[in-house]
Structures are given as C-alpha cells and as structure tokens.
Design a protein that fits this description.
This protein is mainly beta and about 150 residues long. It has a single domain (about 20-140), classed as Immunoglobulin-like, CATH 2.60.40. The chain contains one helix and ten strands. The strands form three sheets. It has a four-stranded antiparallel beta sheet, with no helix packed on it. Strands 1-3-6 form a three-stranded antiparallel beta sheet, with no helix packed on it. Strands 2-10-7 form a three-stranded mixed beta sheet, with no helix packed on it.
C-alpha cells in the first residue's frame, strides 16, 4: 500500500506542469522570407520573424540605434536596422510577437546574370543580449533587363 501511495504522488507531481519562463535573451524564429527570386534594384526581400523576450527590452527609442542585424551571404559585414521599443522602455514584462521588415533591395555583385544568396540575421536587446542566429532559404537575384546600356 505504501508503494501505491508513492507511485500516486510521483504521478501527480509529474503531471503538474510548470509554466515555462521566457529567457531574458531574445529568441527568434523565421516565419517567412521572400520572395525567393528578386530583380536587382527593384524589390526588397520581406523578412518576417517571431520573437520572445523575457524582460521586454527589445527595440530602441533612438532611431539611429540598430537592433536587427542582417548579413548578406555574399558580403563580409551585416547591415543594421532600427526596431522601435516593443514594450514601454521603463517596464520589465515578457513579450512575444512577430515583426516584418522590408530589407534594402538587392543587386548583383558579379557580372553574371544571377546570383544565389541567403541572409543570416539576429536581434539584440537593450541589455546587449544577442538572440539566436537564423539563416533564410536561398534567394536568387536576377539581372535587371529593363535598363539599356
């Protein structure tokens, strides 16, 4: 009988679900990135991703401060993008949601008629915590054939 009680207590303890606590470092996931083929100079890729942050310190009030970093696989350095505060700056509250950013239109770096590339991106919060890095699926940049030499 004593072992039956022990088993019942163990089952009851294991069935209680502890609510997951969000980490203070941001976590992101790709929702979409497209189109997967773009005409050079004509259109920017739209990057849509979800975010979670345990203390809500994503985004900056200063429009010159970058918190989204996006690197074209064909280049050495990432470009920065501004994200405004996603929660009131003087609060500490867990937040989650989705962001959509239209990136600067792409162009060909070489002399071929098309290039394939990817974007690697991450976000940082006001405390300097860096999210996980994500890589988009391949994007093909094609030559702009509407211009004449």
């Amino acid at each position: 009988m004593k072992s039956a009680w022990m088993i019942a207590i163990a089952v009851a303890a294991l069935s209680c679900k502890k609510e997951a606590v969000m980490p203070n470092s941001p976590v992101i996931e790709i929702v979409s990135a497209g189109p997967t083929e773009v005409d050079e100079f004509a259109e920017g890729v739209v990057l849509r991703f979800s975010y979670k942050d345990g203390d809500g310190d994503l985004g900056e009030t200063d429009p010159d401060a970058y918190t989204l970093w996006v690197k074209d696989s064909r280049l050495n350095a990432a470009d920065g993008y501004h994200i405004p505060p996603l929660a009131p700056p003087d609060t500490e509250v867990a937040i989650q949601g989705e962001l959509e950013v239209t990136l600067t239109p792409l162009f060909l770096l070489g002399s071929s008629g098309q290039e394939v590339m990817t974007y690697t991106f991450f976000i940082t919060d006001r405390a300097g915590n860096k999210s996980n890095e994500l890589v988009t699926s391949s994007i093909t940049v094609v030559a702009d054939t509407t211009t004449t030499p």
